[in-house]
Amino acid sequence: MKAAALAVLFALLGSPCVAQTASGEIEKSKQQFVEALNTGDAAMIARIYTERAILLPPKADMIQGREAIQNYWRGVVAAGLRNLLLRSIRIDEYGGDAAREIGRFIVGSPEPRDQTGRVEGKYVVLWRKSGGEWQHDTDIWNFTDPSGPDVSTGPSAAPAPIGTETPSPTR
Fold first, then answer.
1. Which of 72, 87, 98, 118 is placed for a possible disulfide with 94 were both Cys, Cβ 3.0 to 4.6 Å?
2. CATH number at residue 96
3. Is 148 part of a structural domain of the chain?
4. 131-152 pLDDT, tens per residue?
5. Domain residue limits at 134
6. Concatenated DSSP letters for 113-141?
7. What contacts 17, CB < 8 A, 6 or more positions away?
8. For the stretch 31-67, what's the b/e string if a residue is b when 16 or more beta carbons lie within 10 angstroms of its beta carbon?
9. Cα separation of 142 and 128, whole Å?
10. φ, ψ dihedrals at 108, nearest 5°
């Protein structure tokens, strides 16, 4: 009886540590994302996404797959968005290999006459642990001001909308 009670106690005490570890690992990956955007490294940004990730940017179609996501972020970098700040409001872990992050962001946006404006918004990232690392699996955000910057990448970099590619039989 004592052994069972101790096992339950250790399990309860251990659970917050697991969540804190996931949150800490997600925070590290999130900082890599910020650094990559702020230095204009679209390839590094793309590596933070799973192979089959889906991006749901404002004012654009859904984008699926690491290569298409890299092309999208290349366009964002070319549009001049920099100085990204992310602040998590909440990170919830689901089953040890998935988590949801809800947060707010501020990013510098180019303005006329070489000035930089500030754009604010909110985001949700669904994280998936893949190969021992936390990666973006689904990423959606919108601007607090609905007229936010146009960061669409244009037809040359935009992939086909989701549903037009051949689906993979497994995830």
1. 98
2. 3.10.450.50
3. no
4. 889 999 999 999 987 655 555 5
5. 2-143
6. GGEEEEEEEEEEEEEEEETTEEEEEEEEE
7. none
8. eebbebbbebbbebbbbbbbebbbbbbeebebbbbbe
9. 21
10. -80, 135
> Are residues 90 and 102 in contact, defined by beta-carbon separation less than 8 angstroms?
yes
Indicate whether 156 belongs to any domain.
no
The residue behind tokens 């409001």 is: 89
Tell me the whole-structure pTM to 2 decimals.
Answer: 0.73
**Is 117 a domain residue?**
yes
CA distance 105 to 144: 10
User: What percentage of the chain exceeds 70 in pLDDT?
Assistant: 70
CA distance from start to end of the chain: 42
Q: d(Cα 83, Cα 24) in Å, to the nearest integer? A: 22
DSSP string over 44-78: HHHHTEEEEEEEE-TTS--EESHHHHHHHHHHHHH
pLDDT for the residue 125: 98
Is residue 168 very low, low, confident or very high in pLDDT (cuts 50, 70, 90)? very low
**Has residue 155 got a pLDDT over 70?**
no
Q: Identify whether the C-beta of residue 79 lies closer than 8 Å to the C-beta of residue 149.
A: yes
